[in-house]
Design a protein that fits this description.
β3, α3 and β4 form a beta-alpha-beta unit. It contains five helices and four strands, in the order βαβαβαβαα. With 128 residues, the chain is of the alpha/beta class.
Length: 128
């Protein structure tokens, strides 16, 4: 089962996200802070990490994940509420030049997320 972590300070966002993503077949872990997310990732890396840009220490979390052994393999979704180019570029720099954000249109985020994740995982399987 694919492991996915939601790092967000909002209990509501994490719980709703967990409910939706569990229904899509993910084993969902929650982290209310960047420190807790890092500790959990150090114990066992998820395949996918969803990070709220408003989370204190979000950029440091992304950079620290990338520095972990196998950290480059984690697919990171850096969620920016508004199209703020400055925040998006800071997220890109934190991921060592890889753009960690995926554009999700408000009308179809679950389908776009599923397509993005399924496409990347099947691409990784064919490369193995």
């Amino acid at each position: 089962m694919r492991r996915l972590m939601i790092a967000d300070g909002s209990d509501v966002v994490r719980k709703v996200g967990k409910r939706i993503l569990s229904g899509m077949g993910f084993l969902v872990l929650e982290a209310p802070s960047s420190l807790e997310a890092l500790v959990r990732c150090e114990a066992e890396l998820p395949n996918i990490l969803i990070v709220d840009s408003g989370l204190d220490g979000a950029l440091e979390l992304i950079a620290n994940i990338r520095r972990l052994p196998e950290g480059a393999s984690v697919r990171i979704y850096y969620c920016v509420v508004e199209a703020d180019l400055r925040k998006m570029m800071a997220g890109k720099r934190a991921a060592s030049g890889r753009l960690p954000a995926e554009a999700l249109r408000p009308q179809d985020p679950d389908e776009r997320l599923r397509q993005s994740i399924d496409g990347r995982l099947s691409h990784q399987r064919t490369q193995s």
